[in-house]
Design a protein that fits this description.
Blueprint lengths: L21 H17 L4 H6 L7 H8 L17 H14 L1 H21 L2 H13 L4 E4 L15 E4 L3 E12 L6 E7 L5 E7 L5 E2 L14 E12 L11 H35 L1 E2 L2 E2 L4 H29 L5 H25 L11 H11 L6 H13 L6
Parallel strand pairs: 1-4
Antiparallel strand pairs: 2-3, 3-7, 4-5, 6-7, 8-9
The structure holds 3-thiaglutaryl-CoA and flavin-adenine dinucleotide.
The site of flavin-adenine dinucleotide (FAD) has 23 residues, from β1, β3 and α11.
Length: 394
Amino acid sequence: MGQFNDTFESPDFYQIDDLLSDEHKLIRESTRDFVKKEITPYIEDWCQQATFHYPIVKKFGDMGLFGPFVDEKYGGGGLDYISYGLIMQEIERGDSGMRSTASVQGSLVMYPIYKFGSEEQKMKYLPKLASGEMLGCFGLTEPDHGSNPGGMVTNFKDMGDHYLLNGAKMWISNSPKADIAVVWAKNEEGRIHGLIVERGMEGFTTPETHNKWSLRASATGELVFDNVKVPKENLLPGKSGLGAPMMCLDSARYGIAWGVVGAAMDCYESARKYSLERIQFGKPIGSFQLIQKKLAEMLTEITKAQLVNWKLGKMMNEGKANSNHISMAKRNNVEIALKIAREARQIHGGMGITGEYPMMRHMMNLESVITYEGTHDIHLLILGKEITGIQAFF
Ligand code: TGC
Ligand code: FAD
């Protein structure tokens, strides 16, 4: 019982599979098989021990799960955004921390190099990132600038033959193990640029953040820059300004919108099965109306989120999606996933708090997911601005 005998199949109440191509279904099934073999048998131990299982990086790479939207020329899969979403859904069905590793690598490290990098940068980094030979991280958030990244103080000076980077980033997924960091910093005019900082550069350290109750299978840390000499060829030449990291966030937030539906489906399926097996008052608890209400509402919310994701994926493929569309999906889907995790936990009664079942782990993970990549309230304000034309951030 529980996640060690992983017989997961996703609910598809509105026959959304009919909207997917054979290639989409193949990608989903192969990723699901991978997750059943490489993640679900071990994830409980990794989380209990707060361990980032580094060998998973190469395995993700071998499976083509990093940056699937990147051109094949650079080691990517050349796949569409629905494929990317399905991959994120399946990985997060396993664990949000595992999906974090994959979405940071794909959307926040490969994406900016792919979109804003020079040809030399693309050839140097993308194939190794895609194959998992190299792990990357994305440094935007600072100790005093989270929701307001535009206020960042990390900066670099032009020293003629190199840049001198100073400052610090906080809450950075993958940082303790990353080979490279895509770092956002201001130049002397206060303009934000992306720089590729490599492990081993003098003055660059990545202290790990401990004592997390969430995303325990993902390594989180700081990035500290103490007079780091960054070669000039490591500046991303294609785009500057806050819009550059925000474009990366659009891609990652899109992946989260799909990913959390995976976590929600895992909780729902566990609760559905448990409700049919657990007997109280001489009957399966699934025969009680209050349990049925919970299950019916979970399936309804999952189905709505699946449809939102599919339509958003179509819009992404057609170049019609903007950041407001993505904010709505990220915000809604994380919220429903968190509610479903809580309700599913209740259906399991006391058993629901143990590692025999995945809900508590998903629930704790989702507390990070509802905060990172823009908090729940920041996405509400982004939508409020879109609706009214008035920004209410400050
Ligand atoms: P605002 O004045 O609205 O915009 C400044 C400039 O940025 C442009 N822009 C965007 N461009 C492309 N896509 C978007 N989504 C964009 N949003 C804004 C905008 O057009 C403007 O450009 P320009 O050329 O006119 O200067 O900026 P603001 O300072 O008022 O703040 C906007 C706000 C609050 C919405 C934004 O800063 C925000 O979203 N804050 C949340 C921060 C955030 O999401 N941080 C995420 C850090 S990374 C992370 O969490 C990774 S976790 C990964 C994992 O483990 O999975
Ligand atoms: P704050 O910005 O201090 O917000 C605190 C509270 O105030 C929130 O509830 C927020 O909604 C609210 N608030 C803030 N401003 C307003 C406003 N104008 N109006 C109303 N309410 C407001 N960042 C990276 O750059 N790279 C990473 O890889 C990364 N990984 C992360 C991994 C984890 C596990 C976590 C927890 C975070 C990660 N982050 C990363 C950082 C994440 O993006 C930030 O935590 C997030 O953007 C919020 O910033 P903050 O924590 O500083 O909260």
